[in-house]
Amino acid sequence: MQSACLVFVGSLNREAPYFQGARGVGLGVYAFDEATLAVQKLAETNEVDNPTFLSVTPDGSRIYANSEVFAWREGTVTAYRFERATNSLAYINKQPSLGSITAHNAITRDGSKLLVANYGMGSGGPDKAVSVFGFAADGGLTAPLASVAHSGTGPNAERQERSHAHSVTETIQGRVAIVADLGIDQLVSYRIEPDGALVKLASVALAPGAGPRHVALHPNGRFVFVMNELDSTVVSLALEPSSGRLQLIDTKPAVPSEARAHNHCADIQISPDGRFLYGSNRGHDSVAIFAVDQQSGKLQTVDFTPCGGATPRNLALTPSGKHLFSANQNADRISIFARDEQSGRLADTGHAIEIGTPMCVRITRDPLQS
């Protein structure tokens, strides 16, 4: 059944001064049927501290959860196994992330490594912007294979007092990682060596005070799209895959002008066919929709759809692209939208996953129903 999906959710379960409450359980797994919109809880555990970002293997069998805990000098990354036959979660192991406020991770395309971005606050400890882990035979994490640090500041004295690596994304072609650093307004490209070492290839500066946060990749491998948290814009760039060089193509506001002063952008996702972008706006509490010109990479604003809650921190599309989930952190609700594949527009289905402080949602096909 192509309509059967697994939904993995990380929710906040420890207070932090920059979040508005922690009402979640931690890590949860759900079944979702795209045909009927039925949602069923399969498993959950409260043994993971503040899993604010997750990566999941394509078959849904392994989960890698970042723990973002205020005042820890290092976050952690925890590996779990999910057994679909028994709907059970099993702890494998965890590793320190080599930096504080561990914000994002990504499994490499060849399935051999985990890339981890640390936002970083204050000073002290290893203070690495990005670290690389291998996988053991049981799916657990090895000790860190490599890491890199960033330095610098930006014009926003409150938010850009230091480097803040917010995400790390491997290109479509593979073996090149793009790090979005909110603190220094840069996208930094690294070659991923077979042993995990990161070799800097290039960097590109975005507008001062832009605050790049999350990245989406066009399926053709030619275009990169970035959600800028601090100035509420979305940018498209041309990528030279071998060198990692990026060149700005277009910039569009992510919210209406009247909402810009009180908005902070968060996530960005792209439709499977590469025709539409979806970005989340915290403050305006909307999902911005953009059409992508397939030849030039330029953007056209389509719509701003209410997110069905408050503070849409994270978005996820089902593998088919028929539905979009919005994790509305301060509404304790993951809203489920139907997506028109021709226009790109979203319609709230009225269905949702009710869960305390959802922070991250990832979706795979359900292997039991495939």
UniProtKB/TrEMBL annotation:
> What terms describe the molecular function in GO for this protein?
6-phosphogluconolactonase activity
Species annotation: Mesorhizobium plurifarium
Assigned keywords, A-Z: Carbohydrate metabolism, Glucose metabolism
Question: In its keyword annotation, does this UniProt entry include Iron?
Answer: no
How is this protein named in the record?
6-phosphogluconolactonase
Q: Name one GO cellular component term.
A: cytosol
- UniProt family annotation: Belongs to the cycloisomerase 2 family.
Record's superkingdom?
Bacteria
> What does the entry give for GO biological process?
glucose metabolic process
InterPro entries, sorted: Cycloisomerase_2 (IPR050282), Haem_d1_sf (IPR011048), Lactonase_7-beta_prop (IPR019405), WD40/YVTN_repeat-like_dom_sf (IPR015943)
Which SUPFAM superfamilies would you find in this protein's record?
A: C-terminal (heme d1) domain of cytochrome cd1-nitrite reductase (SSF51004)
Decide whether keyword Lipid biosynthesis is in the record: no
